[in-house]
From TrEMBL, chain A:
SMART domains registered for this protein in UniProt: POL3Bc
Key words, A-Z: Cytoplasm, DNA replication, DNA-binding, DNA-directed DNA polymerase, Nucleotidyltransferase, Transferase
BP term (GO), one: DNA strand elongation involved in DNA replication
Name of the protein in question: Beta sliding clamp
Record family assignment: Belongs to the beta sliding clamp family.
Gene Ontology cellular component annotations, sorted alphabetically: cytoplasm; DNA polymerase III complex
Domain DNA polymerase III beta sliding clamp N-terminal per the UniProt entry, residue ranges: 2-120
Domain (DNA polymerase III beta sliding clamp C-terminal): residue spans on this chain: 246-365
A Pfam cross-reference name: DNA_pol3_beta_3
From TrEMBL, chain B:
HAMAP family in the record: DNApol_IV
Official protein name in the record: DNA polymerase kappa
Originating species: Geodia barretti
GO biological process terms held by the UniProt record: DNA repair; DNA replication; error-prone translesion synthesis
Quaternary structure annotation from Swiss-Prot or TrEMBL: Monomer.
Cofactor: Mg(2+)
Subcellular location: Cytoplasm
Gene3D superfamilies for this protein: 3.30.70.270, 3.40.1170.60, 5' to 3' exonuclease, C-terminal subdomain, DNA polymerase, Y-family, little finger domain
Ribosomal protein recorded as keyword: no
GO MF entries: damaged DNA binding; DNA-directed DNA polymerase activity; metal ion binding
InterPro entries for the chain: DNA/RNA_pol_sf, DNA_pol_Y-fam_lit_finger_sf, DNA_pol_Y-fam_little_finger, DNA_polymerase-Y, DNApol_IV, PolY_HhH_motif, Rev_trsase/Diguanyl_cyclase, UmuC
Family: Belongs to the DNA polymerase type-Y family.
Enzyme Commission (EC) number: 2.7.7.7
């Protein structure tokens, strides 16, 4: 019989990550369970919904090796409420587990571990990338991905890997975000383009944010990310990603440099009085200033003026305030460049002095 | 107890052409696009029908069947004018008029009957008045429900009058082929005939469970109509459920640019109609017909309602691109919108633009 000892903190942290991967009800019962396995002196916990899988090493003491699966939700709920003391977890007859902590004893009915799906691991050639960089590239793009199910191939991040550059791209058809780096080692010899579903992307940032090195390996219609402790596998989204480079304009002639914090504050405040149906917000660029204004019927109106740090031009343009706030809010720099062409063309936003991040937003227009 | 009339013009477009041009009188006339332009017959006069010419037939086929037929192009403005005339005659009789198209309508004349007039007399008066005022004949079916009135008006064309009195509904329907029944299209008819169900009486006599198993709720509905049970009301204002436009190419094409160009043009036409009707819809539909006449539609429901030609052309264009593979060549392309939401507020509100060519 398996017998393990954990601290509450270690066990809870791991289960929390896994619980969001484990499938909800209404699927195979085994998929709503986590696998707990102690072999070769290591304790591993795993969860899968057959689209995304994670296995991770949990610090703990092995008294006896073994394996079991148990409801992810129940285990997480119980561990969350336990006092901050040593947790003993053991298997008993008939696929049950018994948790003892302080004065409490909790017995949960599980399922045998051999019913749990086999999980892939890194095999064959792989790339490596700094985990913090990978997560920051995801953070700079993910907010632009579509969550509309009709455009399933936009419900993910596009990993555009070429010998020259690694780009992560997200778009919902109205805005686009691209993060670039050359941090993939070794660079691929041929261009690779894959779509990683959003569910997996969110788990990547939870799992690998502090990893010094993440291995990335492509299997047939799957991608595997792994560091020393955790392995995350995801099915790839099938479908052709739009040719995003084509829509990134190079002829936006109005170039403005603006302060991120000033602009973000102004946008957030004025947006409070934007039309709650459209979130439309207007930018009037003139005489070295950007006037942000919004108007909501039967509610009120607001405007605020932000000085342009450098650059000049004259333009009137309207946007969905949420898109602007999200894009500016994800810029990792003190200043950003706003490049505009006219009131009907996409605006480019980039951190000043950094070509590794770009956001593109289509404006709104008054219907004639 | 209701009294319903179904009235429609006989060979509407062709009759209007004969009316306006006396030299066409008594001659085979077909209305529609030219054979060279791959037009189809929109309407054929009874003289042309004797040669087997039918509407929706390719013009080339029609001219082969009846070489002496005189082809004239359609003049929809004129047909609309006559249509307004006839509908106003109908409305003189009862406000409960439900137009189905330019040339046909249901009339609920229950109140007129309650005032002491007999349904056959009402129908005969109506026919006389249309003939006198417009110079055209209509055929009228009189019954206690819409579905039977419609079948009846078709029984004695042209210039017909068929009355199905209360209590005679089932006997009237019984011997008719199933294809006459409302909601039984060619596919359903084929399936029913394969099962030995050929007349409306056969459907009426079917085991309800048996029908339901094969045709679901539609099966139960067919049986109710076959039994003469139809209480659907005459709806005065028919809501627009969809708006569409389509075109047949002079030459089949598989060229993506040419096809996209046509989709854009059709989108513009649909957008104009939507704007006029103050409608915006969430479901965009693309209709395609291949060289071998296989016809199918692809549709997408958007998370927001659209009205502009640009939005339509983008969505329809995406649906189109997914169908461009192999050596497929297309004969017809159509663009349509349904799933309407009112668009009264649309003109004042800013509208989010999208990247072109994106999902």
């Amino acid at each position: 019989m398996m017998q393990l000892i954990f601290t509450k903190e270690d066990l809870f942290r791991c289960i929390q990550v896994l619980q969001s991967v484990a499938a909800g009800r209404n699927t195979l019962p085994i998929l709503s369970n986590v696998l707990i396995r102690a072999t070769n002196g290591q304790i591993e916990i795993a969860a899968t919904d057959l689209e995304v899988s994670i296995q991770t090493v949990v610090p703990g003491t092995i008294v006896d090796e073994g394996a079991i699966t148990v409801s992810a939700r129940k285990l997480s709920e119980i561990v969350r409420e336990l006092p901050d003391q040593e947790i003993r977890l053991s298997t008993t007859a008939n696929d049950r587990i018994e948790i003892t902590c302080g004065e409490g004893v909790y017995k949960i009915i599980g399922l045998p571990d051999d019913e749990f799906p086999a999980l892939p691991s890194i095999s064959g050639a792989f790339f490596t990338i700094d985990g913090e960089l990978l997560c920051s590239m995801i953070d700079k793009t993910e907010f632009s991905a579509s969550t509309e199910e009709t455009r399933y191939f936009l419900n993910g991040l596009y990993f555009d890997l070429t010998p020259e550059i690694t780009q992560i791209v997200a778009t919902d058809g109205r805005r686009l975000a691209v993060a670039s780096s050359d941090a993939l080692i070794p660079p691929p010899q041929e261009p690779i383009g894959i779509i990683v579903p959003l569910k997996a992307v969110r788990e990547i940032t939870k799992t690998f944010a502090e990893s010094a090195e993440v291995k990335v390996c492509l299997l047939e219609n799957q991608i595997v990310f792994a560091d020393d402790d955790s392995t995350l596998t995801s099915r790839l989204v099938e479908g052709e990603y739009p040719k995003y480079q084509q829509i990134i304009p190079s002829d936006n002639e109005v170039h403005l440099t603006l302060n991120v914090d000033k602009m973000l504050g102004g946008l957030r405040r004025v947006a409070l009085l934007s039309n709650p149906k459209t979130y439309s917000i207007r930018l009037d660029v003139q005489d070295g200033k950007v006037r942000i204004s919004a108007k909501a019927p039967e509610l009120g109106e607001a405007y605020e003026t932000v000085d342009v740090e450098s650059g000049d031009g004259e333009i009137q343009i309207a946007f969905d305030a949420r898109f602007l706030v999200e894009a500016v809010g994800h810029i990792q720099a003190e200043d950003f460049r706003l490049e505009l062409k006219d009131s009907l063309s996409a605006a480019v936003l980039k951190p000043a002095g950094d070509d590794g991040h770009l956001c593109l937003i289509m404006p709104m227009r008054l219907d004639s | 107890m209701r009294h319903i009339l179904h009235a429609d013009f006989d060979a509407f477009y062709a009759s209007v052409e004969q009316l306006d041009n006396p030299t066409l009188h008594g001659k085979p006339v077909v209305v529609g696009g030219s054979a060279e332009g791959r037009g189809v017959v929109a309407s054929a006069s009874y003289e042309a029908r004797e040669f087997g010419v039918r509407s929706a037939m390719p013009m080339r086929t029609a001219q082969r069947m009846c070489p002496q037929a005189i082809r004239v192009g359609a003049r929809f403005d004129r047909y609309r004018e006559i249509s307004q005339g006839v509908m106003s005659i109908f409305r003189d009789l009862t406000p409960l008029v439900e137009p189905l198209s330019l040339d046909e309508a249901y009339l609920d004349v229950t109140a007129v009957v309650d005032n002491g007039r007999q349904p056959p007399e009402i129908a005969a008066d109506l026919k006389r008045r249309v003939k006198y005022e417009l110079g055209l004949t209509i055929s009228v079916g009189v019954a206690t429900s819409k579905s039977i009135a419609k079948i009846a008006s078709d029984m004695d064309k042209p210039d017909g009058l068929t009355v199905v009195a209360l209590g005679e509904e089932r006997a009237f329907l019984a011997p008719l082929p199933i294809s006459k029944l409302w909601g039984v299209g060619p596919k359903t008819a084929e399936r029913l005939i394969a099962e030995g169900v050929e007349t409306i009486a056969d459907i009426a006599g079917c085991d309800e469970e048996w029908l339901r198993e094969r045709f679901g709720r539609h099966g139960a509905q067919m049986q109710r109509l076959a039994l003469g049970q139809d209480d659907s009301p005459v709806v005065v204002r028919r809501e627009t459920k969809s708006v569409s436009a389509e075109t047949t190419f002079a030459r089949d094409t598989g060229d993506p640019d040419e096809l996209q160009e046509v989709v854009s043009r059709l989108s513009q036409r649909v957008a104009n109609q939507l704007r006029r009707k103050q409608l915006q819809g969430r479901t965009v539909k693309l209709k395609l017909r291949l060289s071998d006449f296989t016809t199918f539609t692809r549709q997408r429901t958007l998370p927001y309602a659209v009205q502009s030609a640009e939005d339509l052309s983008q969505s329809a264009g995406e649906l189109l691109r997914a169908e461009l593979y192999g050596r497929r060549r297309f004969r017809l392309v159509g663009v349509g919108v349904s799933g309407f939401e009112q668009s009264e507020e649309l003109p004042e509100e800013p509208r989010q633009l999208r990247f072109s060519g994106f999902g």
